[in-house]
Amino acid sequence: MSVHPITRRAIYRRLRAANPEPRSELQYTTPFELLVAVMLSAHTTDKSVNTATRRLFPVANTPAALLALGIEGVKPYLKPVGLYNAKSRNLIGLCRRLLEQHNGRLPARRAELEALPGVGRKTASIILNMVFGEAQIAVDTHIFRVANRTGLAPGKTPLAVERALVANTPEEFQRDAHHWLLLHGRHVCTARAPHCPSCILADLCEYPHKSVAAPPARRAHAPRTPRRRRAD
Ligand code: SF4
Question: What is the pLDDT of residue 225?
Answer without folding.
Answer: 41
